[in-house]
UniProtKB/TrEMBL annotation:
GO terms for biological process: transmembrane transport. Keywords: Membrane, Transmembrane, Transmembrane helix. It is a multi-pass membrane protein. One of its GO terms (cellular component) is membrane. Belongs to the autoinducer-2 exporter (AI-2E) (TC 2.A.86) family. The lineage of its organism: Bacteria, Pseudomonadati, Bacteroidota, Sphingobacteriia, Sphingobacteriales. It comes from Mucilaginibacter terrenus. This is AI-2E family transporter. InterPro entries: AI-2E-like. The chain crosses the membrane at residues 21-39, 45-66, 78-97, 149-172, 212-240, 246-264, 271-294, 306-334.
Length: 359
């Protein structure tokens, strides 16, 4: 055998000592922890970008309406859209701010006694005693869960500050960010991703239209109904319910609790009527008004919506719960365009090849 054909003998592998194995394991675990923490922070940042995109979509949608109705230039219409929205919010806070502050103080003053009265009424029935026992035994867990759900990575005010400024930047120059994203897409995939972005845009606009109208209708209906029933702090309760309408399923239940508790201080029958007012108003808005407005949004299964809210709430707190539905809609669109349609095309081609030829 030629010496050149001989293969060099493999080097013996160096056996790691026990201490070296321990340090390697610690390094791998530490690296995984760092990656998970970075991914979680990056996910929260992506959620803030999505929230800013929704606000920018609202500004552009309102600007489109102003431009279409008046025939003014795009710059003027967008200036009125952004400036007018902030002006309306400021005027509303100015006019109802003092009354709202008074009702908040009244609600905070009466709520402890209201809870005590509710506990007394519940303790009079066997079912009520079981409910009180359950809440007493799990009060710590409920508090920790609520604290975790309503916490965010940068703080509420910090998140709002970042989201508003991102929304203003997206509104001022949307093409810069859109074109910058399209540059990263390969030339063969540009048409596909343009279709995806158009579908996402239509879906988010439909969600925004339905959500804004639903919040206003809930506020108006509850204001009228609770005023007729003589419930105190009507503006606070109606505004609270309208704002929580942005959280499907869970928001309606949470909004109903303080109203029913206050109604219990009057009588049990009043509490039942107030609960019916909440249920009827939420039912009308959720099952009649919202589907008509959101006719272009994806029909998401209710169970899938609840699952996404629980997952997003656990990962990102209140912001995750609020954005769970639009994020789920975007995910469904991506799955449909990138996977489902391709599978259908392949099946159609296979079926076409298997069709027998006829004379």
């Amino acid at each position: 055998m030629d010496i050149a054909d001989q293969k060099p003998a493999p080097r013996p592998r160096k056996e790691l000592t026990y201490i070296e194995k321990v340090w390697h394991t610690v390094a791998i675990v530490a690296l995984l922890v760092v990656v998970i923490l970075i991914a979680r922070v990056a996910f929260n940042v992506l959620l803030m970008v999505l929230a800013a995109t929704l606000i920018s979509t609202y500004f552009h949608g309102l600007g489109n309406i102003i431009q279409r109705k008046t025939g003014w230039s795009r710059k003027v219409a967008m200036s009125i859209s952004v400036g007018g929205s902030f002006a309306i919010v400021g005027v509303l806070l100015w006019f109802i701010g003092a009354r709202l502050q008074m009702q908040v103080a009244q609600l905070s003053h009466t709520l402890p006694s209201t809870i005590s009265a509710a506990r007394e009424k519940l303790s009079e029935t066997p079912i009520g005693q079981q409910v009180l026992t359950y809440f007493d035994d799990n009060s710590g867990k409920i508090f920790i869960t609520a604290q975790h759900f309503f916490s965010t990575s940068f703080g509420v005010l910090g998140n709002i500050y970042i989201i508003v400024f991102l929304a203003l930047f997206f509104t001022a120059s949307p093409s810069v960010y859109k074109n910058g994203f399209m540059i990263l897409i390969p030339e063969k995939k540009k048409e596909l991703w343009q279709c995806i972005m158009n579908r996402v845009n239509v879906s988010l606009k439909g969600w925004l239209k339905g959500m804004l109208l639903s919040m206003v209708l809930i506020f108006v209906m509850l204001t009228i109904g609770l005023t007729i029933m003589g419930i105190p702090a009507v503006l606070v309760l109606a505004l609270f319910a309208g704002m929580l309408k942005i959280i499907p399923n869970f928001g309606s239940l949470v909004a109903m609790i303080p109203g029913v508790l206050l109604a219990l201080t009057v009588s049990t029958n009043t509490a039942v009527i107030v609960a019916l007012i909440y249920i009827v108003s939420q039912t009308i808005v959720s099952n009649i008004v919202t589907p008509i407005i959101q006719n272009k949004i994806i029909n998401l299964p209710p169970a899938l919506t609840i699952i996404s809210q629980v997952i997003m709430g656990t990962l990102s707190g209140a912001l995750g719960i609020i954005l769970a539905v639009p994020l789920l809609a975007i995910t469904v669109i991506l799955a449909d365009e990138l996977y489902v349609k391709k599978i259908n095309v392949v099946k159609r081609d296979v079926n076409a090849e298997n069709v027998p030829l006829t004379d």
